[in-house]
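can u pls check wat happens w/ WTA
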Amino acid sequence: MKRVPDIESLLRESRVFKPPAAFMQPRAANWNRKTAREQQKLAAQSPERFWAKMAREHIHWFTPWRKVLDWKPPFAKWFVGARTNVSYNCLDRHVEGWRRNKAAILWEGEPGDTRTLTFGELHRQVCRFANVLKGLGVKRGDRVALYMPMIPELAIAMLACTRIGAPHSIVFGGFSAEALRERISDAGARVVVTADGGYRRGEAFPLKPTVDRACAGASGVESVVVVKRSGEPMPMRKGRDHWWHELMAEASSRCAPAKLDAEHPLFILYTSGTTGKPKGILHTTGGYLTHVTTTAKALFDLRDEDVYWCTADIGWITGHSYVIYGILANGTTTLMYEGAPTTPGPDRFWSIIERHGVSIFYTAPTAIRTFIRLGDEHPKRHDLTSLRLLGTVGEPINPEAWTWYHRVIGGRRCPIVDTWWQTETGGIMIAPLPAVTDTRPGSATHPFPGIDAAVLDDDGAPVAPPDGGFLAIRKPWPGMLRGIWGDRKRFRETYWSKWKGLYFTGDGAHQDKSGNFWIMGRIDDVMNVSGHRIGTMEVESALVSHRDVAEAAVVGRPDEVTGTAIVAFVTPRAGIAAGPALADALRAQVTRQIGAIARPRDIRFTDALPKTRSAKIMRRLLRDIAAGREAVGDTTTLEDYTVLAKLRGDED
Ligand code: WTA
């Protein structure tokens, strides 16, 4: 069997944490030992029968399916012929029963303002906005771009899109005008919903002016709807721009949910890949909703009395699946917070948990590491005893952060549900069941029932534990991406060409003797910075578009807080002076083209980049240099050894 190079199973963590006693009581959890065993047994016999059972138990269907799965690799159709509606499942069915006056959204703005929307109120607003969209000419299948802060109107707008079958494309509010323009035009969105601004770190940041810049020229955008949030004066373009509150005041609060095919496009969400152009990941209706609703119920053990808080921005997949859809579909109260974790003080998150009685808290390792640095005194000042379950997502969690989270935030009584998944998978794939699975700090443990995850070598053969390999999914699952918007070829090449009919995740992993999965991070040219995916190529193309730059290569280096820090190696054009001024200009260039999240931490100037004889940039060497490690690996194909020495700083 061929060994996979480059992936070493470095991590060895042997501590085991049993599920907390409070979860182990026979009827304490939604999925107790007995139910979990039954589900696992069914899923092992037939994933399709398992998912069909979940779909019947968790989702309301207007029309049943004729067939659970139609799988013509790499194209899957789930619940063939069935009809449903996501907003109906998140709202109407709760409103028809006792949950009508239960809080659906508890919202807190950064300045401290709060709003509570009951399921009944959210339903009315969603119907209104669905009618607003119709009034603007949005039809079934038309794409709507949402570029908004974390305010209830974002939830209203996305649910309204699902009500009428208009796929949304949410663009994170931190992306630049150019990034927004690219995403609007790739999706062909004719309507954009935005706000004048939002609050972050004590200041109002503008959004609408960015939309104006993104729509300059022929963008195809016909209407822009603007929520008044910051109150900053906004120029409004006549005929194109409308105030949200004015349109809403005139719209009816009745709107029947469209009975949509299970495979109707639900949303597009752009994510970084290994080329300069982001990929529009396409998700559809019935399978996605089944996947996120089932996993949320089982893994977060959602109960009617819970206050659930996921700190992710809705602009990322975590926010789509586990701030809104999977949570509201279960009739659970979801908390939304607009701003920064440390505004006005380092204890903002803990104060929110205490004031709202949050019982389930889902955040990212990078945030946990930030809080560790800020000091235990901040969480200790607050009563966090309402918490009963903690989750993490976005990147591997280091055991130190895990144990701190467990001890200081969870008071040693909360299970930690480390969830591995991706924009492409739609929902959680590998994670412990809180009442069942023994957890090990740093491991996402076992695949969810019905998910066939495996560690494979280059040839698609399973790698024996504890060796490392490529993380693959061997069978289709309901929340899987259905394609890359407008690019079937790239869809095949990116995910389905490494092995025939098997999904390639882009992650390296290994399993231990007990079958636990340990994710080793990305093995392609995608960096995970603070839990956000950024392609090295995207940053490189932003850098080389600067007129003073001849060539650039971008790699990640390990960072204690953000997981990865971006390092750029830049060769200036002849006659251009390298120095702090150029470095500043380049950082500004990246911010302008992509957004501040992609700004390189270090910029190192060099006369030339190390290349192989076939002119490929030697990224592994650059990664070693960036990390300050001794350059290992085969350097004999270096065209110019002096480059290596210069880059290492040997000449300083
Ligand atoms: C990484 C976020 C280790 C992984 C939901 C994956 C993780 C990428 C974990 C997807 C985890 C996510 N442990 N690594 N629990 N969760 N990742 O698309 O590299 O923003 O491929 O989806 O994040 O990032 P994305």
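The two ends are 45 Å apart (CA to CA).
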